Amino acid sequence: MAGQSSATSSSGTNIMLAIYEKKTTALDLYRPLRNYISAVYSEREAQNLEDDLQTVKQYRSDLERQSDPSTSTARRDLLQSYFKSLCLIETRFPISPDSDHVNTVTFVWYDAFKQKQKASQQNIHLEKAAVLFNLGAVHSQIGLSHDRATVEGRRQASHAFIAAAGAFAYLRDNAATKASMGTSTTVDVSVECAGMLERLMLAQAQECVFENTIAKGSTPGVCAKISRQVGLYYEEALGALSVAPLKDHFDKGWIAHVQLKAAIYFAEACYRYGLELHEKEEVAEEIARLRTGISALTEAKKNTKGAAPQLLDAINKLEANINRNLERAVKENDRVYLMRVPSPSSLPPLPAFSLVKPMSMTEVLDASKEKLFAILVPDSSAKALSRYTEMVDDVIRTQAEKLQQGSELTRVRLKEMDLPDSILALEGNFALPTDIKDDVEAVQISGGPAALEAELQQLKDLKRVNNELLVHCEELLQKEATEDAQFRSQFGTRWTRPQSSTLTKNLQDRLNRFAANLKQAAESDAKIERSVRDHSALMSILDRRPIETALPTLARPIMSLDANEDAIVGALKQSLRQLEILGAQRAGLEDMLKDMKRKDDILPKLMTSTGSYDDLFRKEIAKYDHICKEITQNIEAQEQLLFQIQAQNEEFSAVFNLEDYKASREKCYKQIQAAIAKYREIKENINEGLKFYVTLQDAITNVKQQCSDFSMTRNIQCREMIEDVQRTMAGLSFQDQKNAGSYNYPAVQQPHQTQRAASQPPPEPQNVPISRPQRPYYQPPDQPTIMSGYAQHIPPYPPYQAPPGVGVPYPAPQVQQQPPTSREYGQPAYPGWRGPYYNAHAPHGQQPGSFPRPPYTAPYPPHQGGYYKQ
């Protein structure tokens, strides 16, 4: 009948159902179809269609085999392909008991829920209905196979259940009625059963969404809406299971499962909604909601026969949670709030929000592009059927346009009269225009004006971090420069390496520009803070929850001569109710037209008709006349009612001074819109500032790494040069004492001294000072120009990418004894190292990689203009 599966979830209720496929008997379609082609068309046509006939035979043979749960996707593809083949067979092969038709084919299918019951028909619609049923069943099995203990598994399961709902909806709308004709039928492919299974699959899909919503930590209000919709879907399925023909067709375990699920998710919605009410300190309604949830669970536990033990455990846990919150709320109300608890019957329905809908199977099952039996031209009956279908489509299209025009006329006329908004305003039920309400909700979701202070604090914190990094960079360079100056003073002309100031000019320039950027950014920050303070009163209206409380009220007149205000309002409301009834009737008439067309199958009559097709068409098309007449009467009644409403509304406007109310309401709308515009402007400026500080922080961090590398390299070079100078001084002293030939250490960048030294006698080996190669001094070339302050539009900072050489360890100093060599202290530390900061010849802006995207993104479209906002 159905499979069950469970998965660990936050609520413990994730026990779901999958549908087993219908079973059939072996059937040979190949021989009857081939015989029909050979008899009606030709043997040559039959030979040409041999491959198509073999394809259909293989589809039917594969369908008869027992399905394997591990190959559910392949089974799904088979069912879809076979259904499209049946659609093509239907238009070319009349299958019926008639002697001139394919009368040797009998489709036999067993009920999926009462397997002893079977349907046996010479009707291809039974075959199509059974295939659609099995398609929905396979999708439900795929949904059950996913790991619903994970977010991704629940998402995939939800998609599979949505597809299953789509298959059952397609069965209900397109095949169930035709398959149920005759005496040999089964309940599982009826319209009622297909509709119930569609609701059940939607309930399970929405349930997976609810589990993911809980896992993401959404607010109690959102969770309550989604949970309530789960319960509504289960309640709709339970309603279908509780009446004929499904009441006695399903096991009690089915009904118990669906009933418990409906109760659990209704109580879950009460529980979540109660959490939101507690946050709002609406304790009285919270108590009423929690009591309602407890009552639903208590009632559901009376019928638990056949239910899964996990569901009973879930009920007990949920009941304990609700009781705990209820006890807390009652205590708080008795001690603090002292509110009157409303009765459950006086509470409005819990809000619900559906995040699922049946998947459309129209394109999935469309056979128009299939090539099967494409060369088989339909006979005159099929052509006549196409002609009749066009006539029916024309009638339905004409009447549908009349209905749509009537509805549109009503909408426009009511909007011109400001109805029913003015009536709702009189009763205290205010409604903002949809666009303004959506904008306000977007502002409130993002935190509203109250959250701007926290974001301003983020700007201050990021500015402080950037200043600290900048100071640290300057301290590194200053410390190295001070040490270099000390040694230069100590050793005099023997200290031959370049001064720090000549090497760090580019770094100092960059740091100065960063400091200027920060100074300019601070000015922009101050402007933002002033804007927040100056417009706080304007934006405070956006913190009103609900926003409708900020709207002006439509009050009754203070003085009245005849006191007939109630009569005027009552008459207008009565007319509006009548107009609403006419609108509902139009919707029902349109559904009747579509339903009549869906059931309108004259193909058997065309196959057996010997007279004129025109006479048959006139007789059949007359079935639609009574609906067309009702549509005309509906449109005429609506027109008369609109004239009546217009007169009543004019009297209502005069008595209640509606024009003044409209003027004050429009003024309030403009105030809200102005507040939204200012909030968005400030929000955009703050986001731009946050992005600037994050980008600049990474750029300064990069330069800080360069400063550290520079300082480290200079320290190593300093130690080596001290050793070399000391050895040189020691060697010269030793030579003076021996009165031997002097050895002149070659000075950097002095070739003439080297030549003079070469003219001297070579020194004795013992007098040659031991030395090691000197590290070249750190001398970064020119750097690319840095960004300007964030008072301008900030580019994505491509220059501020870490050089690829950063982090490469410095090579260890060589200590082997070598003869003294000339040292060029002005060369780069790494001859082959040329990252973005050291490649002076690379085109500006062409740096490898890309700067990481800042974590702050604005919730509104970018504002056209600079960062400064007055």
Automatic annotation (TrEMBL):
Entry superkingdom: Eukaryota
Keywords assigned: Coiled coil, Cytoplasm, Endosome
Low complexity compositional bias, start-end: 803-820
One GO process term, biological-process aspect: protein transport to vacuole involved in ubiquitin-dependent protein catabolic process via the multivesicular body sorting pathway
UniProt subcellular location: Cytoplasm; Endosome
Record keyword Coiled coil present: yes
Sequence ranges assigned to domain BRO1 in this UniProt record: 15-410
Annotated stretches, region: Disordered: 741-870
Primary location class: cytoplasm
Gene Ontology CC: endosome
Ranges in a coiled coil: 280-335
Biased composition range(s): Pro residues: 851-862
Identification of the protein by name: ALG-2 interacting protein X
